[in-house]
Amino acid sequence: MKFSYKRLDELGSVSRGRSKHRPRNAPELYGGPYPFVQTADVKKAGLYLTEYSQTYSEKGLAQSKLWPKGTLCITIAANIADTAILGVDACFPDSVIGFISDDSKSNVKYVKYLFDYTLQTEFKKFSQGAAQDNLSQEKLLSIKLPVPDVEFQNRIVAILSDYDSAIDNARRQIALLEEAAMRLYREWFVVHADPKWEKKTFGAFAKVARGRVITKATAHRGEVPVVAAGLSPAYFTEKANVKAPSVTISASGANAGYVWYHANDIWASDCSYLSKNETPYVYFSYAFLKTHSAILKGLQKGSAQPHVHGSDIEGISFFVPGDDLVRQYEMIVNPVFQKIGVNEKLIASLTEARDRLLPKLMSGEVSV
Predict the structure, then answer these.
(1) Quick one: 179 and 326 in the same domain?
(2) What is the per-residue pLDDT for 303?
(3) Is 157 inside any structural domain?
(4) Position 78 confidence tier, pLDDT thresholds 50, 70, 90
(5) Is the pLDDT of residue 14 over 90?
């Protein structure tokens, strides 16, 4: 199979996200019907992005732009060269680039596969910034991509899409399981909160520690995911410094305050975390942090590089019942989170199989 080498803008239209208003966190911009996608949402998504943490109001939309469903989102700050295809019409800021494929020249899924499984390392060579890694649109368009004809792209996509369908199904199962745990938390501890409950700090329930930074250059290859910035795996090593179950919280950057649950052992790098070893009520703590994400965002300090410190998280105060009700919650949701762990392992297995298959398909080692 012959490949030609083309820039991204030769395969479709490329434009940077838009968020003109300053300050960016002005409350009147948010809370409306228009999805507002950020870099953390792109990193968390699978093939398609359908979940998002914020929405724009009419005023928010007026200073941004609504990209159509099917647009490939490419992150250029905070998380470099992560991608997801919009499953809904959505806005996104200038830390995300949108690519709309020309169907006569490219299949958008094929372009995503190129980014995710063959080109991320290449792009990261261009993204080393002084304060924070970033990838400009100019740098992005300077790289030429190996592209076969559209018919061959479509055949590769058809094979890999079977894996993505199975992965997306597992992700949906995780989302449903997590929502069940969150719904119970809200019912017990928010909707029916008792004003007679004692006021405590989050630190009374959880010990928030800081991860030990490890780089890809110093990590040994292995199966333990390295979690940086509190998000999904950046790369893998052979040892874990945090046992499951655990929760990570992004400590700095654009995603500072983002919360992630891990059903399997991890290496916590540039993030804060809490684990079963020091925190007996991990599920309760996770549900609290997810439910009160606005409080975490309010803890951000610093203008150029926002930070959320573990000591500030431990200092959050709220009204909670005695340990008996919290222990009961933990016992009820334990099977739910166990099932989440099973689905996480399935996703990891399917992802590894898909990632190994793509270069073989492109090289002709596996016939298409």
Answers:
(1) yes
(2) 62
(3) no
(4) low
(5) yes
- Provide the number of structural domains found in the chain: 2
Among the listed residues 227, 234, 302, 282, the one whose alpha carbon sits nearest the alpha carbon of residue 258: 227
> Which residues form the domain of 262?
172-334
Q: Are 314 and 206 in contact (CB under 8 A)?
A: yes
Q: Is there a contact between 36 and 92 (Cβ–Cβ < 8 Å)?
A: yes
Q: Are residues 9 and 89 in the same domain?
A: yes
Confirm whether 288 is domain-assigned: yes
- Per residue, the 3-state secondary structure of the chain, as one string, reads CCCEEECHHHCEEEEECCCCCCCCCCHHHEEEEEEECCHHHHHHCCCEECCCCEEECHHHHHCCCCECCCCEEEEEECEEEEEEEECCCEECCCCEEEEEECCCCCCHHHHHHHHHHHHHHHHHHCCCCCCCCECCHHHHHHCCEEECCHHHHHHHHHHHHHHHHHHHHHHHHHHHHHHHHHHHHHHHHHHCCCCCCEEEEHHHCCCCEECCCCCCCCCCCCCEEEECCCCCCCEEECCCCECCCEEEEECECCCCCCEEEECCCEEECCEEEEECCCCCCHHHHHHHHHHCHHHHHHCCECCCCCECCHHHHHCCEEEECCHHHHHHHHHHHHHHHHHHHHHHHHHHHHHHHHHHHHHHHHHCCCCC
Cα–Cα distance measured from residue 137 to residue 128, given in angstroms and rounded to the nearest whole number: 14
Answer positive or negative: Cα dihedral of 185, 187, 191, 194.
negative
Residues 140 and 176 in one domain: no
CATH number at residue 25: 3.90.220.20
Same-domain check for residues 210 and 127:
no
> How many other CB atoms are there within 10 angstroms of residue 364's CB atom?
9
Instruction: Assess whether 194 and 324 both reside in one domain.
Output: yes
**pLDDT digits 0-9 by tens, 107-131:** 999 999 888 766 555 555 554 444 4
pLDDT of residue 216 exceeding 80, the answer is no
pTM here? 0.76
Q: Is residue 340 part of a domain?
A: no
Residue 131 and residue 179 in one domain: no
* Residue 268 one-letter amino acid: A
Q: Residue 3 is encoded by which pair of tokens?
A: 């490949």
CB of 72 closer than 8 Å to CB of 96: no
